[in-house]
User: Fold this.
Amino acid sequence: NKMPINIAYYIDRSGSMSGCIDEVFEAAFKISEALKQRFKKDKFVDSIDFRTFVFNDSMEEIKFGQKQYASGSTMDFDRILDFINKNTKNVLINIIITDAGFEVDETKVKKFLKDGVDGLVIFVTNAENAQVKKIADDSDFRSKLVYILADANFNVD
Assistant:
C-alpha cells in the first residue's frame, strides 16, 4: 500500500520577520524540493503534498511560493495550535517557523500533542523557547514534537 506524504508549513510573517522572511520561504522551498526528489520514486509513497499558511495577527492559507511581506504582531501559540487542530491535524508533518518568544501553556500543548494532532510537529525558531524545548525533550512527546533552534536567518546546521 502506498501512502501520501502531506506537509503543512505555518510561517510567521509578523513584523519581526522582515529581515529574514525571504530566507524562510527559500528554506521551505528547498526542503520541499529535497523531499520531492527523495520520495518521488519510493515504492511506498503515493504523493507528496504541501500546504502553506502564514500568520501574524491572523492566519491564512497561501499558494506555495507566493511572495509575502512581514508586518503586524504575532498570533498566540495557542491560536496556532487551535488552527492546526481544526485544519491540518491529520497532516503527517506540521512545521511551525517563527521568531516569536511565545509564552506556552504546557498543559495545553501536551494535550494537543497527545489528543489533537495525528502527525509530527516541527517547531523551528531563532528565538530560544525553553518551554517548547522542554516539551520536545520529554520522552512522552519526542515522537510528536521536534524542536529546532536556527540562527538569526533561520539557517539550521
Q: What stands out?
A: The radius of gyration is 15 Å. The first strand starts at residue 3 and ends at 12. Helices lie at 21-39, 77-87, 106-116, 130-137. The chain has a mean pLDDT of 91.
